[in-house]
Amino acid sequence: MILRTIPVTMLIIFLLTTLCSADCNTGDRYEDNSNGTVTDCRTGLIWLQNANCTTASGGVLPGVNGFMTWTSALKWAAGLGDGLCSLSDGSAAGDWRLPTKTEWMAMIASAKRQVFQNPVLTDTLGTSKWTTNGNAFNNVQSSVYWSQTPRADFANFAWYISLSNGFIDTVASDSTLHVWPVRGGQVGSFGYLFIE
User: Fold this and answer.
1) What is the arithmetic mean of pLDDT over 116-125?
2) Nearest by Cα to 185 from 55, 88, 41
3) Which of 59, 146, 167, 179 has CA 20 to 30 A from 72's CA?
4) How many other β-carbons are positioned within 10 Å of the β-carbon of residue 11?
């Protein structure tokens, strides 16, 4: 059953991200907001520009190389705000969260279609593989990142994504993975899509 729903989900994400893309004024896939954030012009979601920030947040200090358990990652992301992780966007604690499994799938859909790996991520234009800091994002790890989505049938497991190959699976929530927070689009600046 799960194997049948994944292709359908990917098709829906592809159609939604293609047909309902946000207008970021540049025509690019990602727009650097020059405040520590990057807008995904296809979904309207705002990502932390630093994909591996190790600054303390929400009472949580990330471990070696930015790894955290799922519970710590949820607290850490929720504690982010202006002044942390190079943010100057006016955000406050409670504005940030982990991306859902579906939001992660939308983030990497184009890169997967183009068979990019290490990491499975496109550049600012959305046409080539992400290769260097400053190409929309910084400190992207070809590693595993948490989603906020718990596994429905196992209380102590949560979904993650591997940016080395685009693999999506679950792992015990006491495992330690990277964290890359997101927040919703800004109302009024452009049409946006929330993928739930």
Assistant:
1) 94
2) 41
3) 167
4) 11
Q: In what order do the strands lie in the sheet with 46-48?
A: 30-32, 37-40, 46-48, 182-183
85, 48 in Cβ contact below 8 A?
A: yes
Domain boundaries, the chain: 2-183
* pTM assigned to the model: 0.82
Rg of the Cα trace of the chain?
A: 16
- CB burial of residue 14 (10 Å; 0-12, 13-18, 19+): middle
Cβ contact 61:69 at 8 Å: no
| pLDDT classification of 14: cutoffs 50, 70, 90 | very low
- Cβ burial 68-106 (10 Å sphere, 16+ → b, else e): bbbebbbebbbbbbeebbebebebeeebbbbbbbbbbbb
Q: What is the pLDDT of residue 182?
A: 98
Measure CA of the first residue to CA of the last residue in the chain; give whole Å: 20
- In angstroms, the CA 35 to CA 88 distance is 5
Beta pairing class for 157-162 and 144-150: antiparallel
